[in-house]
Design brief:
Layout: H1 2-18, E1 21-23, E2 29-30, E3 36-44, E4 49-58, E5 65-71, E6 78-83, E7 93-101, E8 106-109, E9 119-123, E10 129-130, E11 135-136, E12 142-144, E13 149-154, E14 168-171, E15 174-175, E16 181-183, E17 186-191, E18 197-207, E19 210-213, E20 217-222, E21 232-247, E22 260-271, E23 274-283, E24 295-302, E25 305-312, E26 326-334, E27 338-348, E28 351-356, E29 364-369, E30 371-382, E31 387-399, E32 409-412, E33 421-424, E34 430-442, E35 447-459, H2 469-476, E36 508-518, E37 521-530, E38 546-557, E39 561-572, E40 580-593, E41 600-614, E42 627-642, E43 650-665, E44 668-685, E45 691-704, E46 710-723, E47 730-743, E48 746-759, E49 765-778, E50 786-798
Length: 799
């Protein structure tokens, strides 16, 4: 049992400390009218990944746009995302990834700590051939906003060589061809009320099979004297997706899913000083007697005030309310000397369950989940760019009245007894947390120092109500108690179900951190301790009775070389109440060298050690057994965006991994394993044909070195291709993947085949549908074989 518990603890700690590690080679730049494809490689913790999201925005904007990051194929370490060309505005763009883990927590890459720079993209020189056949007729270097912006271009010299239908007009990084007037051999585009700033314009066209473009023309728009109408800008997308499943053997097929459909919309608008956003998600998987799937959010942000209604995940502090969804209201009022933040809503929905008790004359046991209310507030003093301190309080309470007593209270008379026994099938909790945090931000020195200390109270069952003052006096061994707990039950219910009853160090958690960016060297040091009785239902992740020391360092040299490393020490039994202490040490180094137009190189090494130690102060009924586990993983590889290959620009990535792990119980080896793996992926975009191809292959083996020696092999092959018709209006594609496992117990094979098409019938609309087939074969157990078919539809309208 100890062995299993320690394995579970090591697994939890590994997720907590190194839940996920990724490598991403940013393209660094983007071109006019070109989608930007991003690849993410998961090098550690793939088995813990639930999903990955991409967030991006133009530098200086407040709201973030979101996008889905798609796994290359089931089980692959590669994920792909696309930033649509429509959202580039000829200025710097920044983005980051959010990795959702199976335990419900999330990690951001790079971290959103206020000091780590995000990934960024800047405009690049246009691809294609520069042509002097496009002649600018409007040569003013600057114009007043009162006069409007006019672009007039002649292509007289190219009149016989280009197809007028292929002409694209780009102004300010956006395709404005639909608003331009093209009359051979002249192009006219006009804006009546341009915003002050620098306008960049360029013309693109097809000359035979090659793409040509004009010079990039710059015009300065000066502020006008007349009052301009405040423009209202809106952007976003409306989406619909559905999945239809069919299974040949539903009883043996793992992960059987019901047919589902969902529709969602993300709308972001700007009107003067106000930013508004609406996010809606409606799914057929929504069930009134289950936790919510649908999401509804509406938000307004103006200087000094943020308000969000509906579903929102506020982060007030690490130990009170942190990245947990609340359906209600969130507001933050802030200024130069402080801020007030408030959040209130429902964190858990009421549900009911009924089950027949076996061998009990068909008696039905009823249980359920109470509706849980969350409320939190924070008062901060100081400046976020200097010294600030905050006081935060939060409470999560199960509302007893939300459930009928039949679903949480059971009364019966045991056989042979006259007295009635009562027990609770569902217990209502009450949790309150208060914390104090300080932060010193020195932007000029790129240094942030901070700390937070919090205390909590948890009542595991508030159904009996508050204890009376006579009972509490007797419980504490006193003649009288000056306070009646019932008078304060609206704030917190006090009774004997509190653990512990009296506050102590076990109810306290604290953390301190130091972050600095010094000469392109990003340093992060953090230490935290959490008491065994500290509970925060509003925190996204919590490891009780533990201490954690974390140190990471990332060095960036001229944007070409990134070197990072880190060390983590985690241990439990902070309070010393257990007979043994479990510790987990982990350290890593990883590096990537990337020089533009040259191959990039990458390498990573992870080392993990977990063990338990005896605590002689606590006597246990079971004899102590020392357990030690070691694991090491190393990977290295290279990649290259090969643009020099005629007609077939290629993106190539090759990586090799090897790992070792062993475990000992009382100095006797229990496991001793090694593994090796090779991954290869290649993407091609042909220039002579509207064809794209993607190929990836991985091979691996695992060896159990202890007798009996067992070796397992696995192979993974993927091929995908897409073709474009009618100027990218229709893009059919096909994907094929086969995964094979070989072992002494037989061979297993998974096959995946997908046939689909993407269509662009009107401006900014994408319709994608595909039919996928999956098969599973087993050389030993044919009864376990199955097949499935999935039909997917996705419709997106951007604006």
């Amino acid at each position: 049992m100890k062995k299993l518990l320690l394995l579970l603890l090591i697994s939890i700690l590994s997720v907590y400390m190194f839940g996920i590690s990724i490598q991403h080679a940013s393209p660094l730049s983007y071109g006019f009218g070109e989608d930007v494809k991003l690849m993410v490689e998961v090098i550690e913790g793939l088995e813990n990944v639930s999903s990955i999201k991409l967030y991006y925005r133009n530098a200086g904007d407040i709201p973030w746009m979101s996008g889905i990051v798609t796994q290359e194929s089931p089980g692959s370490v590669y994920y792909w995302a696309t930033i649509p060309a429509k959202f580039f505005a000829d200025i710097k763009m920044e983005y980051y990834f959010e990795v959702q883990l199976l335990d419900g927590s999330a990690e951001n890459f790079p971290p959103l700590d206020g000091i780590t720079p995000k990934y960024s993209l800047i405009p690049k020189v246009l691809e294609g051939e520069l042509s002097d056949g496009f002649v600018l007729l409007t040569e003013e270097e600057s114009v007043s906003a009162n006069e409007g912006y006019l672009l007039a271009v002649s292509f007289f010299a190219l009149e016989e060589d280009i197809d007028p239908a292929s002409i694209e007009v780009w102004v300010g990084g956006r395709d404005v061809t639909y608003a331009a007037k093209i009359a051979v051999p002249t192009i006219l585009y006009r804006e009546e009320n341009p915003s002050p700033g620098i306008k960049k314009a360029v013309i693109k066209a097809k000359q035979g099979t090659k793409t040509i473009h004009s010079n990039i023309w710059l015009t300065e728009i000066l502020p006008g004297t007349k009052k301009r109408a405040i423009p209202f800008t809106v952007r976003g997308s409306v989406n619909f997706a559905s999945n239809v499943y069919d299974y040949s053997k539903p009883d043996v097929t793992p992960g059987v899913s019901d047919n589902d459909a969902a529709s969602w919309a993300d709308v972001y608008g700007t009107y003067g000083i106000a930013n508004v956003q609406t996010n809606l998600y409606v799914s057929s998987l929504e069930k009134t007697n289950q936790q919510p799937v649908n999401r509804y959010t509406f938000g307004v942000q103006i200087p000094m005030l943020d308000i969000f209604a509906g579903d929102y995940s506020p982060s007030l502090s690490q130990f009170t309310l942190y990245n947990k969804n609340i359906r209600g209201l969130y507001a933050r009022f802030y200024g130069k000397v402080g801020s007030i933040t408030w959040a209130h809503g429902q964190s858990v929905r009421k549900t009911t369950n009924e089950a027949v008790i076996p061998n009990d004359s068909g008696r039905i046991l009823k249980s359920g989940t109470f509706k849980q209310e969350a409320i939190a507030a924070k008062i901060s003093l100081g400046n976020e760019s200097g010294f600030s301190m905050g006081l935060t309080a939060s409470r999560h309470r199960d509302i007893v009245s939300s459930l009928d007593s039949l679903y949480y209270k059971v009364t019966y008379t045991p056989a042979g007894e006259d007295s009635v026994t009562t027990y609770y099938s569902t217990m209502a909790k009450d949790n309150a947390v208060i914390s104090y945090d300080i932060k010193l931000n020195m932007p000029k020195q790129n240094i942030i120092i901070g700390a937070e200390v919090a205390g909590s109270m948890l009542n595991k069952n508030t159904i009996p109500g508050a204890i009376d003052k006579d009972t509490i006096a007797e419980y504490l061994g006193k003649d009288d108690f000056p306070i009646d707990p019932g008078d304060y039950s609206n704030l917190f219910v006090i009774n004997k179900n509190m653990e512990p009853f009296m506050p102590s160090r076990a109810n306290v958690a604290w953390t301190a951190y130091f972050r600095a960016l010094i000469l392109s060297n990003l340093i992060n040091i953090q230490y935290s301790e959490t008491g065994s009785a500290f509970n925060a239902l509003g925190a996204s992740y919590q490891l009780n009775d533990s201490r954690v020391l974390s140190f990471t360092d990332q060095l960036n040299i001229a944007r070409y070389w990134v070197f990072s490393g880190g060390y983590n020490l985690t241990s439990d039994n902070v309070m010393g109440h257990k007979s043994e202490t479990n510790t987990y040490n982990s350290w890593y180094v990883q590096s990537m060298l990337r020089i533009d137009k040259f191959p990039y190189f990458k390498a990573a090494y992870f080392n993990n050690v977990g063990e338990n130690k005896d605590n002689p102060d606590i006597i246990s009924a079971n004899p102590f057994q020392h357990y030690l586990r070691n694991s090491k993983n190393i990977s290295f590889g290279l990649g290259y965006n090969i643009s020099q290959i005629p007609y077939v620009p290629t993106q190539l990535d090759i990586s090799y991994r090897m790992g070792y792990d062993d475990s000992q119980l009382s100095d006797v080896y229990q496991t001793d394993n090694e593994s090796n793996g090779l991954n290869f992926t290649m993407s091609n975009k042909y220039t002579s044909l509207p064809l794209t191809t993607q190929f990836s292959m991985s091979m691996g083996d695992q060896k159990q070195k202890l007798a009996p020696i067992v070796e397992n092999d696995n192979k993974n092959f993927f091929f995908g291709a897409g073709y474009s018709f009618w100027d990218d209006k229709i893009k059919p594609f096909v994907n094929y993947r086969i995964v094979g496992f070989s072992s002494p117990n037989g061979d297993q094979n998974y096959g995946y085949f997908t046939l689909g098409v993407e269509a662009y019938p009107i401006r900014d609309m994408v319709i994608c549908t595909n039919l996928g087939f999956q098969s599973y074969s087993n050389s030993v157990n044919s009864n376990a074989e199955y097949g499935s078919t999935t039909w997917r539809v996705l419709l997106t309208q951007r604006f």
